[in-house]
Amino acid sequence: MIVKQYLMFILYSLCASVFKVAGTKSKARGILGQIPITQNVTVVEGAIANMTCRVDYNDNTSLQWSNPAQQTLFFGDKKALRDHRIELVRASSQELTIRINDVSLSDEGLYTCSLFTMPVRTTKAFLTVLGEHVHFGEVSIGVPGRPEITGFTKPAMEGDVVTLTCTTSGSKPAATIRWFRNDKEVQGTKEVNATGKSFTVRSSLQFQVDKRDDGVAYTCSVEHVSLSKPYMTTEVLEVHYAPHLEIAHSLIIPQEGQYFKLECVSIGNPIPEPVEWSKDGGELPDIERMIVEGRELTITMLNKTDNGTYRCEASNHLGSSSAEYILFVYAKDFPGPTTDPNALGQHGPDHALIGGVVAVVVFITLCLIIVLGRYLARHKGTYLTHEAKGAEDAPDADTAIINAEGNHVHAEEKKEYFI
Prior knowledge:
This protein has helices at residues 2-33, 341-347, 351-378, 389-393, 397-409; strands at residues 41-44, 49-54, 63-66, 72-75, 78-79, 86-91, 95-100, 109-115, 121-130, 133-136, 139-142, 148-150, 156-157, 161-171, 176-181, 184-186, 189-195, 198-208, 217-223, 231-236, 239-249, 260-269, 276-279, 290-293, 296-299, 308-316, 319-327. It is an alpha+beta fold.
């Protein structure tokens, strides 16, 4: 009995020891899992720095990042410092990652990640910001300066030859320059010059401008090993060009009694103005019904007297332009033509219709030629088959002639027909 109780006591002691050790290990694992983990970060001035803090175990407590001045940047997903360069990348119970854009030398220092347990646990990460000329191992890196576009004086005139030059200095190795016309890449000529221990890189574009270049954006992009994203600068072209006018009308079939509007549509830079309206080479005859408002001419209550050629004119300092519209007013109950007479003059005849008509005419002509040929072949004519027979049997020339004349008498009996 005593032995049995002794064995039970030993077994109970062993079990208690096992549970105690397991509890201690679990507690130690929980404590270790709640220590924040960070890494030091090194970036070049002007680049982007990502600061990440992680924990393996978290009992719903918050993570926080603070800058070297111990100012709170983010507490969980809540932004605390009003700095537009600092953004939240990821926030969860086990991770807090923030991004610092356009890093400057003043951002360098010791950043602190805190886990608000009892007590608060903290870990630090050092942000190193490299200046304009830095060293990675034995390689010297020169960060390129911001690009600048020169050579364009606003505004350019249509037909001018423009040269755009993009320059960046201080890079080592030499930076790469790319040009874009709006979103499409274009090729420029590159020039690289050594200036001390770094390089100055230039790239130029030369082209003749026209009205299609007005408002076009030319972007210079500088790429370098030290940059996380390219440096860019943009020049928007302003091109002046002579005007071009067209007349738009509100009705295809203008009829008596209708309200009718003409608009002088113009393109040009500067905008061509003022717009002058005329009819048949003279002033508008009925100013009470013909109302001019800016670029529009409105005719109220159309009638036959409004028929004629209407003209609008406008100019800028580079030239002038005009456009005409022929107005024909139809009777009120007349269905009118199916096409606009002005549209025919602007767009030309229907070439497909003309081609079809020509093809039909040629086909009919060929058929007539074939039929006529077959008819002539069937009725080619007659000839005498025995004309020479009398001549062969005649003793002399006089007899041959007499026999030949006699043969003609019976010519109808000697005809042969070919089919």
